[in-house]
Structures are given as C-alpha cells and as structure tokens.
Specification:
Layout: E1 6-7, H1 11-21, H2 25-38, E2 51-57, E3 62-66, H3 79-89, E4 95-102, H4 112-121, E5 127-131, E6 136-141, H5 142-145
Parallel strand pairs: 4-5
Antiparallel strand pairs: 1-6, 2-3, 2-4, 5-6
Cofactor: Zn(2+)
Protein name: Cytidine deaminase
InterPro entries: CMP_dCMP_dom, Cyt/Deoxycyt_deaminase, Cyt_deam_tetra, Cytidine_deaminase-like
Length: 165
Amino acid sequence: MSTDILQSNDESHVSRACETYSLTTTQFHALHSRSSAAKATAYCPYSLFRVGCSILTEDGQHIDGANVENASYPVGTCAERVAFGKAVTEGHKKFKAVAVATDISPPASPCGMCRQFIREFCELPTPVFMFDKDGAFVVMKLEQLLPLSFGPEALPPRGELPAKA
C-alpha cells in the first residue's frame, strides 16, 4: 500500500489492507475503534490536538495510549510512546500492527520521534494504520515511514565496544 487514502467503511479497502498485512477484518476494526476511542483519554489542554494509539500484539492483545501534554511543551508524551511504554512494561515484546487516530483530515502520521520509538520495538514490515476524524485511513510499513532506519541491531554488543583510542 502507499499513501492512498482508503475508507474504513469500504469493505474492499479494508479487505485489501487486511490481506496485504495479514490481519483479520476484526483486528482491523478493533485497531480503528480502539485508537479512535483512546483519543478521549488524551490530556492536551495546550494544543487541543488529541491522538489515540492502539497496538496489536503478536498474541492478539491490544494496548492503547493517548497523548499527554505538559506546560513545559517538550516534556509532553505522544500517544504512540505512551502505548509502547505501557506494552513493554507489561511484558509485551512482539507486535503485529500499530494504529493512530486524530481529529483531523487527512490522516496524520506519527512524528519523527515516535517513528524511531516504534522502530525500537517493531520489525520494519510492521503496518502502521493512520486514521482521520472520518475513518479514512492510510497504511504504510514502518520501513516506509522511517527509511534507512537505525535500530537496536545496529549497535555492537556491549562486550564488543571498541576501546577508547
């Protein structure tokens, strides 16, 4: 799939996305509804920009999160990082899909920091579904959102770090 804007109420669009990314339509609809519902828990009194995220684990569980802002703007945390933080601290390490939802149209993608954060925990072919306020969506693989990415496998093992020169 590319940056084509698809419709979540068009079963041919949903079926094509599910077939491409090995998801069931039930999993797709859960990602959409849960990421959209997660927006209601956002704490965003400064930007008023609600974002919800739902992550589907390899074992079929959903972990949700929403953005949390702070008066010191850089201290805020995006929905994706909230959801992955919850997932990892609850023991989840393998993920099948990520969904984000916003109140704007067209769909918005995760920010650069979140793309890198997702990269820490997801394989490059992982689909990222991006839903807008009307249910339209774009889906892209993580490797499309973060080309030439740097991930944990790029780091040398701790015992193999070169000595200081």
